[in-house]
Amino acid sequence: MRPEWVERELLNFGVHITNGPITSDRTLAALFSEESAMRLLEAEQAVMHAPNLAVAASMFSKRYAYLAVSSSLYLMTLYDDIYQFSPEACAFREDWKIELDEMRCSFAQLEGDRHEWREQVVHTLFTQCVTPLLDVLNRTSRLPYSILWENVAVRINSLYHSMMRESDEPEVKKRVQKDYLFLKQATGEIFGAKQNPFRHSLNLDESLLETSNRKTCCMYYQLEKKSESLDYCLVCPLEKKKGTACT
């Protein structure tokens, strides 16, 4: 039984819990198929006025990282809880949010050793619901893994930066630091990869309060129709474009 606050916190990230079966062909499980992923990217390309599939894939991966990765890590770090979902239980909505089938999800609280629990939580999240999606986005759009993984890393950096800045409790701050370092130092196996994909892109300082630029460009500036008011991301690596950045 999940507490009521879980749904409230997930809604803040654009994650909706539903109590009916998900029949959409836009489930995460369906998107592991190259054919389904291609259809979704072509649709997203048209909606966002992207010049090609690579830009569409980059924007899509950034959004998914916020919806699924940030929301999950937020519950894990701040509450020592996690709302676990399977690829079959997650569907992408046309409003750029996701919905989770309550019947196929589970609320898992911290039990036993926290390091072991955290390792299992992160391993399950990435190997089942993140890495397979990045793999198919890479195959269908030819967007390099370096950009896809840094799109996820940017969301993680932002999340832990915010949690550190907003928390007044020493124990919470300590947990935030420990979880961030775990994500940066864990083995690649935890993420379903040969090497840790975040080793060089989780690059906030030890206080988690200093920001830094990306190493790769997410190509947001190539969108014809942008959702934000400015042209470039705040952490854009294109030095000459600093000062014209968007959030």
Q: What's the tally of helices?
A: 8
Work out the strand percent. Answer: 5-15%
- Main β sheet profile: 3 strands, mixed
Q: How would you sum up the global shape? A: globular
**Average pLDDT taken over every residue:** 90
Tell how many strands the DSSP assignment holds. 7
Quaternary structure state of the chains depicted: single chain
Give the secondary structure arrangement, pairings included.
Elements: H1 4-11, E1 15-18, H2 28-31, H3 34-48, H4 53-79, E2 81-84, E3 90-92, E4 98-101, E5 106-109, H5 114-129, H6 131-141, H7 145-166, H8 170-185, E6 232-233, E7 245-246
Parallel strand pairs: 1-4, 6-7
Antiparallel strand pairs: 2-5, 3-4
Helix pairs in contact: 3-4, 3-6, 4-5, 4-6, 4-7, 7-8
